[in-house]
Design brief:
By secondary structure, this protein is mainly alpha-helical. The protein has helices spanning 3-16, 24-31, 35-47, 61-66, 76-82, 88-93, 97-114, and strands spanning 51-54, 70-73. A two-stranded antiparallel ribbon has the order 1-2. 21% of the residues are buried. Residues 3-121 form the DUF4143 domain.
């Protein structure tokens, strides 16, 4: 299997985990790669603004670094395409509709605050 095929499977695995905590072992297993490779590939996707990792909330900055972030796609349509949820009706009524809605809302907030004059720190309350 080529790296191109593995990377495509990795993207599909990321789409399957949309709006959930990042699990490198699950992502690695879905693409038949090492967890360290999954971590590096996810860093690439974050750097390319394809995915967004939302850090969990904590008053203690060190705890915040050790907690697991949630994964969101910057483009909800791309996420739906990768997951083969291809119609609006399927997205509204499907089993993962809440995940896609959460992804959409979080990314709209991220985009809105990116244009704000003052810096806003968006974190996840768990």
């Amino acid at each position: 299997m080529t790296d191109t095929v593995r990377f495509r499977k990795f993207l599909v695995g990321c789409a399957a985990l949309v709006s959930e905590q990042v699990n490198y072992s699950t992502l690695a297993e879905s693409a038949d790669i090492a967890p360290s490779t999954a971590k590096e590939w996810l860093k690439v996707l974050v750097g390319l603004h394809i995915v967004y990792l939302l850090a969990p909330y904590s008053n203690n900055e060190l705890k915040r670094l050790s907690k697991t972030p949630k994964l969101y796609f910057c483009d909800t349509g791309l996420c739906a395409y990768l997951s083969m949820w291809l119609t609006a009706d399927t997205l509204r009524n499907g089993a993962a509709s809440g995940h896609y809605y959460e992804n959409y809302v979080v990314m709209e907030l991220v985009k809105n605050y990116a244009c704000a004059k003052s810096k806003v720190n968006i974190t996840l309350f768990s």
